[in-house]
Structure prediction request, 476 residues.
Amino acid sequence: MVFTDFYAQRRNCVPSATAFQEGHGSFPAERLVQAIWQQQRLLRDRLRTLDGQPVRILHPGFKNHGAGPDFHGAMIQIGSEPLRNGDIEVDLRPSGWQSHGHDRNPNFKNVILHVIWEGERPSTTLPTLALQNLLDAPIAELSTWLGRDSLNALPEDMQGRCCAPLLDLSGDKLTELLHQAARIRWQSKAHQFQSRARQVGWEQTLWEGLFRALGYKQNIWPMQSLAESQPHWLKLPANSLDLQARLLGISGLLPAELSPKRTSADGYVRRVWDQWWREQDEFSDYILPRKLWCFHGLRPANHPQRRLALAAHWRTSKNFLSKLETWFTASLDKTELVDSLLQTLQIEQDEFWSWHWTLRSTRLAKPQPLLGSARVTDLAINVILPWFWIRAVEGKNEKLQRVAEERYFAWPSAEDNSLFRLARQRLLASATPKVLRGAAAQQGLLQIVRDFCDHSNAICENCQFPELVREWSANK
Ligand code: SF4
Prediction:
């Protein structure tokens, strides 16, 4: 599909440190290989070390912006060994381990996996994983989508050079430019779904997207792992409570014993355990360690145990997908978008989770929904609409492509967060969310940060975006 937008054309003219040119013996930039690792754009169920051991990635780790290995805090399993926690180093070739001096540097003593682009023999005793033949899409395609992705944080206290030309634009022009940038972000997500669907099918791809979105930013990876093992844990027919037990058991989030104080959760935990102890052996290969989950800074309503209960209701609903398709093809007014999707995804009531935030919290005075409108917007923008769109693209159904696009660009703004705030202050000198009209404009702003800010520095050195904005303004 060819897009001729001004933003897309100019973005492609900006040299990227990670752009990949295919050719004889070419290697991608190390930064692109790091981005592939960070985003796990891999055939994750086929990973093997150079000596043939299967590798399971439970968490790829967090990008290290200082000295030392490229990623900290990763969690992996090699073959049937116990889980390993530690660092990941990314190099293009096995020999990078010695030639970069990692073998002599004590900062690298916690590395648990050497990730390389290509090579046949490890040059360290560490397990070594070559990515070249394990990508989920061709490298040139990944270079287009990930080449500019963020590995850096945005500097905090600087207004950018693009601020003045952006503020000169009328509200409509600014929104139009942001929408062009948003289109890039939308396509990137959609093509990621397309690549995954080629491996596992459209339905499984949708479930993986939904689970990831239920993980928020803190728990994306454990939710992804759970969704990936779904073909194994969904083998038996299950009602919602049975599936909650299974998901809580496999996730490692089921408490090992009842609290010494009697709590209102005791009855629920007992029932869940009654179910789980019967089947835990069958699913033992897929059980995640509890420490994989992050609870820091989580609102109680977003606790993963509660999110898994919601996922169990969706997964055991016989008509979940057909309801979603009915919502997508219904004729809806802009003002009905959020509520109609919320109604489609909301579950009526859960005997336990409608009345509790977590397994430890006391019973609430009034039942609370398992899904709110903020999460519905994230699900629509990041998963449901791009998934429907790229499926329509593959099916050459232009009418449904238009429906997905119209909904995306009409969707009301997402809940404000620190990422949006920082980008608004830097690019638009504005602390007020109102300056961005709708969720697509917010997405467009984030895309500009990825495409330009992340390749410049705090003083906007060599950034071509201000010129792009001036040119855009003059040509309009
Ligand atoms: S780096 Fe470029 S896009 Fe980012 S704030 Fe500076 S001028 Fe704007």
Remarks:
- The first strand starts at residue 55 and ends at 59.
- The chain has two domains: 27-146, 183-410.
- Residues 27-146 form one domain.
